[in-house]
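This part of the workshop introduces the protein records we will be handling. A record pairs a protein's sequence with a compact description of its fold. Backbone structure tokens are a discrete shorthand for how the chain folds in space. The question running through the whole workshop is how a given chain folds. The record below serves as our worked example for the rest of this section.
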Amino acid sequence: MTLQNTLQKAWLRRGPLACLLWPVGQMHAGAVVLRRWLYQQGILKSWRAEVPVIVIGNVVAGGAGKTPLVMALVKHLQAAGRQPGVVSRGYGRQGDGCLEVLPQLPASLCGDEPLLIRQRTGAPVFVARQRIDAVRALLAAHPQTDLIICDDGLQHHALQRDLNIAVFDERGIGNGWLLPAGPLREVWPPTNNRKQRPGPQSVAPVDLLLHTGQTAAFAGFQSHRALADNAIAADGTQVPLDRLKGEALVAVAAIASPEAFFSMLRQRGLTLVRTEALPDHDSFDDDSNTDALWQPGQRLLCTEKDAVKLFARYPDAGQQLLAVPLVFTPEPGFIEAFDTRLSALGTTSFSRTSQLPSTHGHQTS
């Protein structure tokens, strides 16, 4: 068992290992409070873009389903006549410079999630170590952009935002302790009243909360996840999942919770003779991971997030390599609350008849 797996297991309860790390977590909490106070006092400077900025993030370590929500909101905004752009750090990529994500760019240069967002939505996407640099570059290159969505960044206080959206999966807040004793990056629950700041706050106010798992960990808007009816090959060919029943299939996933993907495949009646759970954002550069797993004549299934790398690695695989998209749909009340929040900011009103489309995204939990 890796150190990461050991910690994630320890974060679910207040056991011996978590208690041993609790003093370090208190130091982390103090550092979080101090950093936020420095921004509140103007000692550390923050920057505001000339268009509204929406941050979609989480307060727990690891993936929780941010990217499917980013894509869903981008498509909703586009359907409403808006022209959103997306910024991200591009976790796991080579280098940390500012870069525009183009559809055919290798994931190793821009990150798998930003590339997936660009390919699925067509919206301009920029990555940079400093999100401010990404926002500035995006607005300079695409001046028609009227709204920015930041994929992750609740703790990135240097970039001022107009709307904070937090996502949670089934883990909720785990044992409720801060890193490394627990999964929290900052204290939860947050202070939601922006006008009441009697002292230094340790967490950014959260405007909307969405659960991305199959079950909600606590109160908040919920969403629905299901596998699409068709898997997709690199050339766009669609293969019905029902047609794959009875085959001896291999599945691979380099996401936050690979077993969730494997379980959903089995629930659709598919037979998985082998599975390979790799670390989140794995580059698939290690031949031992996929080449040894994938035998000639077998069909390999993966997530869309992994497909942006595997399709490039195996360009001649044809229908032997298939991505199985995730259909991600937040409940209707969430998009209504989202539109209301944007209207309160003085932005262009949305049509109340607009429905949030189901979005094919990657499995993250």
About this structure: Confidence is low (pLDDT under 50) at residues 191-203, 348-358, 360-365.
